[in-house]
């Protein structure tokens, strides 16, 4: 705990720093007032020319990405070192080049309605190309070490989809998946869904790289992407309210009314999920299995933000600037290796469990798991998890915590461990996260200080999950 003299000294230092900054700003303003008007106009023209260079460099990026990028450009340009302007333009040029390379030529600057038109155009063009498949020769391509024969026009449509950024490289695609693709390439709905998902995901990664996703600026998801996702939800809700369905008995309901009666309703979905967890827990407790609660996180180099500020390990030492999808792949690979240890023929370990994935405030995912194992296998399971490979990190998994019994009964204890994490995933479940307590606002609203802010934070959390999965 920090002592009172140290706290007072820190506060006094901050006050002195603020006063010095204010005095410097006043001196700069007084000096600027002495500059003759012609010189000031010339400097303004130069500044406008510099801004024109910036906007020409960032062509193809959405406006809500340009804004924080422009702020970073200004900070570098205002440096006192010689060549600051060249350094600022060089940073922007490198950022835009890496963004275009990572996004696979996706139309990042397009709004949703423009993406719909773009999807329609591409689907129609691919449909016309594939319609000529019977008239063209058949060619062989090498996929996963095997020759796959496809009509030349089908391959042309595939290449067009790859160039548009909605398909991975052909070498990463199996022969069976390749056979199913021609019909999808001519489907406007398929194009539209993938374009929206991939464009939003690519733009959000750019915002993470710029440091716009954290508890101080926008938790879980950037403000621009959140507004985009909220607009989609509102349009979907309006479409469901206007569409009607009539059954064989002549009863007519809107699709919005029907969706509220299914698991599309967050309240029903949450209830069903918690019942499944409780049922599984009752069965496992009846069999005498031991239960543990496990949290798995990624190494520091996967996190854009660390301890309230930029993480110096992110994108450093030759490491890429990892996206949330790449972090999730890392966690899946680590857990797959752990399951391989469970399945060793000499001493196999049977583990059952429930997994919840949730993001940190900077969008980096981590896992919470409720797992059950036979008591005589608990020690070996804990030893295997202790050997969980942590590539690039000293530790990537916390030691599992055994779930204690309440009044001699463990039933429901595991469900309670996961309840608060599941509540975050249900925007309209009636459960607030963080729990809002007026008498302890800091405890319940670490990110937003009131009930409305918590609801927005929870909605932002759901939007992030829908983008990155």
UniProtKB/TrEMBL annotation:
This is Replication endonuclease. Keywords: DNA replication, Endonuclease, Hydrolase, Nuclease. InterPro entries: Replication_gene_A-like. Residues 172-386 form the Replication gene A protein-like domain. It comes from the Bacteria. It comes from Jeongeupia naejangsanensis. GO terms for molecular function: endonuclease activity. Residues 390-414 are annotated as: Disordered. Coiled coil: none annotated. Belongs to the phage GPA family. Possible endonuclease which induces a single-strand cut and initiates DNA replication. The keyword Nuclease applies. The keyword Cell inner membrane does not apply.
